[in-house]
Design goal:
elongated, five-stranded antiparallel beta sheet, 447 residues, six-stranded antiparallel beta sheet, alpha+beta
Length: 447
């Protein structure tokens, strides 16, 4: 019994010693904190909380890896995006407000007071750098008013819009039901000798947005002879009220270019070309193409214009080209601020049914002529989808003359051809040739 009493007393003394030791440690810690001026309350480790900036944050998490690209933005892993690397707070310093994900968006007059997108404090301005008095305000001269409207956003790709534009031009493109339809857009560019060419054809909004959808009824070809001495152009505009006008336009330009290439490869002069003979052969090919498909010649009616241009052009020696056309597809020459038709009178109506001559019915109505091509000239074979703008769209003549003063990039040229204007919904095709290239590359003044 005495041994049990002695064991209990021993355990009691051990527990008392441990309690006394813990009290001594606690008092020492409190005194040490007070001596250092911290004044912090002791909290057991299992009750301590994480600092707020290390827990769930409303700031987006950094994206791994650099994000520097075309806009020159810095890495999201840099100090500007990490709170843990923010500059130390100085007396009197107030950290800038960072817009968080659940903050209200800026209003129409700007962001709310105190909402700044900067994540680092602005650099202080030295007193000597501040101006003593505000600089006098200057008024910039008013910008010239252009008849053409481009996209306001630099990243938006849009065709030029004249005046109010066309609602149909902004409607979605639909697909034609025919599986063998030509593409809605075609474009080419090239250099041959002293000539530089751009070509583009776009289905009009009146054909691509309505029901039933019609395929592109314009067609063009750009080719050369075997020796590279001549550039051969052809543009056709299928008549809208023909069942397969796109077939007629394609056959017409393909046949005409093939016949002209064969003629030129025999080293025969341009003065020996006869428009009625050429267009009669094209009409025969159209009739045969319609017959092979069980169609009537009336189903493949089309206009046609062809041109042959010598590729060697010198500043002191103009050359002669040859052009032939039927109906309302013409050859135009650029003049200062305007365009001049070299192949007959312009039509006076949008209605295609007023045409009295077309292929394959009246090939004998085709007319051909020689024309002079001088260094610095710009000539264009245009369907009425483009040339009608010269007569019916205010400001279009001078705008296209200035726009095509030099050869533009192909994508820009394509958008020019696909311009937007009220009541201009037909297919449009342009094949433009610059003699002598651009001013920059050739060094000669352009007319």
């Amino acid at each position: 019994m005495s041994s049990l009493i002695r064991l209990a007393l021993g355990l009691t003394m051990v527990v008392a010693a441990l309690l006394l030791l813990g009290l001594v440690i606690y008092v020492a810690a409190r005194r040490s904190g007070a001596a250092e001026g911290r004044g912090q309350r002791f909290v057991p480790l299992f009750k301590q909380r994480k600092p707020r900036h290390l827990g769930k944050s409303r700031v987006p998490a950094p994206v791994p890896g650099p994000t520097r690209g075309v806009y020159g933005s810095q890495s999201r892993g840099s100090a500007d995006y990490r709170r843990s690397e923010a500059p130390p707070m100085q007396p009197g310093y107030s950290p800038p407000h960072t817009r968080l994900l659940d903050d209200p968006p800026p209003g129409p007059e700007g962001p709310p007071p105190g909402h700044q997108r900067r994540t680092s404090p602005p650099a202080p301005v030295p007193p000597e750098a501040a101006p003593s008095s505000p600089a006098p305000a200057t008024t910039a001269p008013p910008a010239a008013v252009s008849p053409v409207e481009f996209a306001a956003d630099a990243h938006e790709v849009r065709a030029p819009r004249f005046v109010a534009g066309s609602k149909a031009s902004r409607m979605p493109w639909l697909l034609p039901t025919e599986s063998a339809s030509p593409p809605g857009v075609a474009a080419d560019q090239g250099v041959l000798g002293d000539l530089e060419v751009r070509a583009a054809s776009v289905v009009g909004s009146g054909h691509r947005c309505g029901d039933p959808v019609k395929p592109r009824q314009d067609a063009y070809r750009v080719a050369r002879d075997r020796a590279g001495d001549h550039l051969v152009l052809a543009v056709a505009d299928g008549m809208s009220d023909s069942l397969r006008s796109e077939l007629g336009a394609s056959v017409a330009v393909g046949t005409a270019v093939a016949l002209l290439r064969r003629y030129l490869d025999d080293n025969r002069p341009l003065s020996g070309l006869r428009a009625d003979d050429l267009f009669r052969d094209v009409a025969g090919a159209l009739v045969q193409a319609a017959k092979d498909r069980g169609l009537d010649p009336h189903d493949v009616r089309t206009t046609l214009a062809v041109a042959v241009l010598p590729t060697r052009c010198r500043p002191d020696r103009p050359v002669e080209g040859w052009v032939a056309q039927i109906a309302d597809t013409h050859l135009w020459r650029r003049e200062p601020g305007s365009w001049k038709c070299l192949t007959g009178a312009e039509k006076d109506s949008f209605d295609g049914s007023v045409l009295n001559s077309f292929l394959p019915h009246v090939p004998q109505a085709a007319r051909g002529t020689l024309f002079t091509l001088a260094w610095g000239d710009t000539v264009a074979v245009l369907s009425d989808g483009v040339s009608d703008a010269f007569s019916y769209v205010p400001g279009a003549t001078s705008w296209f003359a200035d726009r095509w003063r030099d050869p533009p990039p192909l994508a820009s040229f394509l958008l020019d051809v696909d311009y937007e204007a009220k009541q201009m919904h037909d297919d449009r095709t342009a094949v433009v040739v610059w003699a002598g290239g651009s001013e920059t590359s050739r060094g000669a003044p352009r007319r």
